[in-house]
Amino acid sequence: MKRLDYKLDRIRRGNYRPADFIIADAKDGDMAFGCATPGKGPDGRMKPLRAYRDDMVKVTESDLVDIMLMSLSSAEVLSGEGIFDGSQVTPAVRVNDTTDIWHARGGSYPKSMMLPFRSARLDRVKPVADLGLYSVTFYNDLDRDHATLEAYCRFRDESSAAGIRHFLEVFNPRVPVETNGDFAFYNNDMIVRCLAGVSRHDRPVFLKAAYNGPAATEEIAGYDPENIVFGILGGGAGTTRDCLELIRQAEKHGARVALFGRKIYYSEDSVLMVRAMRRVIEERITSMEGVKAYHADLAQAGIKPLRPLEEDLELAEQVLKANVG
Fold first, then answer.
1. What's the whole-number average pLDDT of the chain?
2. Could you count the other beta carbons within 10 Å of the beta carbon of residue 165?
């Protein structure tokens, strides 16, 4: 058992403490952004994928995260290098790449409703990771949601046969969705409904979704905590205050997992950002205090911040502005 399993056990038993909060680094961006994934270098050109993988190594070796999520191709490379040998960090692989995460430059796929799709073969995943991420999106569209759940059902059968655990990611739709009421509660109902008939042998070890405010988070996090460990996804990069306030609010209202990608990688330093996230959760400081401590860490490391402190203390995400306090 790795640290992730011990934490999940304590959370499910009702023995959660702030040190048990689970942080996953999402470094599976190559399945969404292609060549643009590593970002631009000093010369203005896109960096090679090795730069992105080097950051995975750096964060894994820091031992500050509990999960490193990767594409299968990256997992094969890093596992071959022995990065996870003896590590308490659990390697995980994105096992489906639905069309709403296809973010090719000039592409328009996210403007359409998601279509199920899987690149990774589970028999190829098993040698490098026994944990996978499966994602779904609900649209209140009978045909589309039925197809989504049929695909998820087939995946569960295959993953159980292959001996691969999974966690479930539920995106907010990128296209307008009409519901008779608040979308956040529709989404909660769909998540719970789709798992109610699933045996404990096939259920996700935890799930993650967008932070849709305190009420929706408290509802789903408190619904069946022994069987549904709720976590949040990070979304866009934003400011450092956005990152730290998001994790603070989510944990306060019952989330026990955070899976952040761009909020970590597009910061000045991935390890220092994760350390700041841990500081906010475990030391119970405010997000403003966390930003100031993060900038102090950058200064000590000789790293120039991307924004002045005053700008980095601003909140850009509306759901966070509405509930800060």
1. 95
2. 17
**Res. 321: pLDDT tops 70:** no
User: Mapping DSSP to helix (H, G, I), strand (E, B) and coil, where does residue 26 land?
Assistant: strand
The C-alpha R_g of the chain, in whole angstroms, comes to 19
Phi, psi (degrees; rounded to nearest 5) at 154:
-60, -40
CA dist 180 and 190 (Å) reads 14
Q: Is 161 helix (H, G, I), strand (E, B) or coil?
A: helix
> pTM of this prediction?
0.95
CA 137-141-144 angle, to 5 degrees, is: 60
Of 114, 242, 96, the C-alpha closest to 172 is 114
Query: Beta-carbon neighbour count of residue 310 at 10 Å?
Result: 7
3-class SS of residue 116: coil
Give the Cα separation of 58 and 301 in Å (integer): 15
Torsion-angle region of 110 (φ positive above 0: left; ψ -120 to 50: alpha; else: beta): alpha
What digits encode the pLDDT tens for the residues 294-310?
A: 999 999 999 999 999 99
Q: Using an 8 Å Cβ cutoff, are 125 and 164 in contact?
A: yes
